[in-house]
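Read as chain and fold; for instance:
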Amino acid sequence: MLFDIAMPLTLLLVTLVSAFLNEKAEGKLKTTLEEREFTMKDIVLLVTGMAIVVSIMVFIPQMAIMVLFLFSYSSLLFIITYIFSNKRWHVSWIPPAMFLLLYVFLRDTAIWSNYLVNIYGLVFAVLITLYMGSIFTWKTTLIFGGILTIMDIILVLVTGSMITAAHQTASLKLPVIVQVPIIPLTFKEGQLQLMGLGLGDFFFAGLLAIQAWKRFGKKTAIMSAVGMTISFFIFVTVLINYGPTFFPGTVMIICGWLPVALLGTPKNAEHPTPVPQTTSHL
C-alpha cells in the first residue's frame, strides 16, 4: 500500500511555526490593525468573495490573474516587513522587490519551479496565517471553518471550480500550491510523483491551531496540530491508493482538529478566578 509522510509533516511544521510565531507577533499585529476583529457579516462576505473569485477565475485573463496575485503577495510582504521593522518603509520594500525580481527573471528556470516557488509558498502561508489570525475570534473561527469546509466541498467535488483555478494559477508558476515529492519516493511512468496542497489549506490549519492555543493553551494547540496531521495522513493514504485525485483539504484538516477541540478545556476553566472568602463572627 502506498502512503506519504512528506506533505503531512510539511503541514505539521507550517502549522506549528504559525502557532508559535503568532504567540509573539499577535500583539503588534493587533495594535497595527487597531484591535479589529471579524464579525459574522465579515465572515460571510469573506467566504462568499472567495467562492465568487474561484468560480469566475476560468473567465479571467491569465495576465490579470498574475497581476492580482503578484500585487497581493507583494503587499503582504511589504505590510508584514513594515510592521516588524518598526515602520521603516525604506526596509519594507526590499522583500517584495526581491520576490518580484526572482519571479520575473527565474520563473522559467528549475530553480524557481523546483525550489523557490515552494519556499515562497510556505512563507506566504505563514504570513497569511499570522496576518489574518489576529482578527479572528473563537466564535468567528468556528463559523468560518464550517462555511469554508462546505464551500470547499462544493467547489472541489461538485463544480470542480477549485481544481480549474488551481491549474490556472499553477500554470503561471505562482506560489499558490506547495508541492513536495511523495515519500517514500513514488514513480509513475518514470515520473516522480508529487503531492500538492494549497496555501488556503495551510492557512486553515494554522488558524485552527492558533485559536486552540488562545482558548485551550499551548499543549492543546500542539495536540490539535498533531491531530490534523494524522487525519491528513489517513485521508492521503486512502486517496493515493483508491482516489479520487482531488479532495477538499479542509475536510481532512477539520476532521483531525474537531476531536481535540471538543475535548479541550478552556484556559479560564482550568484556572478559575478565586472567589473571595468571608468570615462570619458569631
